[in-house]
Amino acid sequence: MNQRLKILIVDDEASQRSGLAAMVSAWGMTPETAADGNEALEKLNEFAADVILTDLNMPGLDGFGFLQRLREGGDMPPTIVLTAYGNIETAVKTVHELGAYWFLEKPLQPSTLEVLIRRAGSHAELRSEKRVLERNLVYKGSLGEMVGMAPRMQEIFALLQQAGPSKACVLITGESGTGKELVARTLHALSPRRQGPFVAINCAALPETLIESELFGHEKGSFTGASERRAGCFEVAQHGTLLLDEIGEMPLLTQAKLLRILEDSKVRRLGGRTEFEVDVRVVAATNQLPEEAVSSGHLREDLFYRLNVFHIHLPPLRDRKEDIPAMTETLIADMNRKHGCRVTEVSAEVLECLQRHRWPGNVRELRNVLERAVILAGEGTIELKNLPAFLQDLQAAAEGASSAPAPAPDPAGTPKDDFGGVKFQIGTTVEEAEKGLILRTLEHTRNNKTRAAEILGISLKTLHNKLKEYGAQELGIGA
């Protein structure tokens, strides 16, 4: 071993604990002790044990229950069960059913115990090396279902690896469709809670009168229509992860109650008289800039700081287009499984088109486009004809731009070409250039404003506002 082994000793007898601690310390190891399973679980929050020595028969949480809790957590260190004479059958059962490393019968033989601890420590080191190798796979461009070679995505993957195993709150921000829920699910998969439930709730989708019932639950008769007791999301997510999506849309009074739960880990159902403890990791997400949400009064400042232990901001797809080829491959494989198709690749023309589009709907839009294309193609290669019309038009315009002869100026002095593009003379203002581009794009799409907005990479609302500025009726377009 390259460093001192950390040994957690769990035994209800003080003399046994102190004796074992002195023994392993003499072997060059670092001991920590606990009187029962509950204390041991608390110690493990701060003491990263390489090996655990635990008695089976203890008051409170016994050795069997302690190992059950460790196994439920999903990351149990090698554990050696210490058993008194006559409990061999129970010890063997513990090894086989709960995954303990080995068992030893009391009274212990020091030489045997030392050999066994060092072997268990070597096993722990191998597991650690395996985790490092798995972490290194991140830098090949994937983490769980997430794909990305862009530098910003690699930074996010590294942060997820660090934040995942912790209990800390995480705030995820990014435009709509960038994959905030997928990040939350990845955090859950990387945590010791991975065997527990993952529960997601959209705070913007629930009316103010129902959101507290959804979050905290309610007792029978607590309000009109409450015909029976109902568990809230915190109860449902016990020992797991709760995603609060669009946290900035949560009512301020509910935010105050949420803050208290995050501080005390206790919940009271609506209409209830008592509180109960919950063990839930909270992840929040929003497509707003959190600082703006705080300054505008939509998000409590104290809640923001409580949630913002780790902050993960997802870049829009237009800022990481180098990831589109790998994402396309991953999404096609997923769609093949979902729809029973056998698509193997996309044509070079399609890939060029996908990388040219600005993707205002981000990854969600890319997924929808590829799902449609996979279904239409069925097998083999996705061709341009399998893409939506607006992408076909975008590609046709780009190909025309590369092959068209030099355009002649129009009477107004702005050079135009045959495929619907625009070139601007020196001295043209930004406002004039923007107007010319928008109007020529509308002409190219035969006044289809939805398609024009997609080609321009702006929202339909923005396009309508621009046309109003230009005096759309005078232009013969109609806002």
Overview in brief:
With 479 residues, this protein is α/β, with parallel strands linked by helices. It has helices at 14-26, 37-44, 63-73, 88-98, 110-136, 151-163, 180-190, 208-216, 233-236, 252-264, 290-295, 301-307, 324-339, 348-356, 362-377, 389-403, 430-444, 449-456, 460-470, 472-475, and strands spanning 6-10, 30-34, 51-55, 79-83, 102-105, 142-143, 146-147, 170-173, 198-202, 217-218, 230-231, 241-245, 266-267, 276-277, 281-286, 310-313, 342-346, 379-382.
Give a verbal description of the structure.
The chain is α/β, with parallel strands linked by helices and 479 residues long. It has four domains: 6-134, Response regulator (Rossmann fold), CATH 3.40.50.2300; 145-221 and 229-315, P-loop containing nucleotide triphosphate hydrolases (Rossmann fold); 317-387, Helicase, Ruva Protein, domain 3, CATH 1.10.8.60; 409-479, Orthogonal Bundle (Arc Repressor Mutant, subunit A), CATH 1.10.10. It is 47% helix and 14% strand. It is built from 20 helices and 18 strands. The strands form six sheets. It has a five-stranded parallel sheet with strand order 2-1-3-4-5, sandwiched between helices. A hairpin with a 2-residue loop joins strand 6 and strand 7 (146-147). The chain is elongated, with a radius of gyration of 30 Å.
Major sheet details: 5 strands, parallel
Multimeric organization: single chain
Helical/strand content category: alpha/beta
Indicate the CATH architecture of the largest domain.
3-Layer(aba) Sandwich
Poorly predicted spans: 135-139, 410-421
- Tell me the count of domains: 4
Helicity range: 40-55%
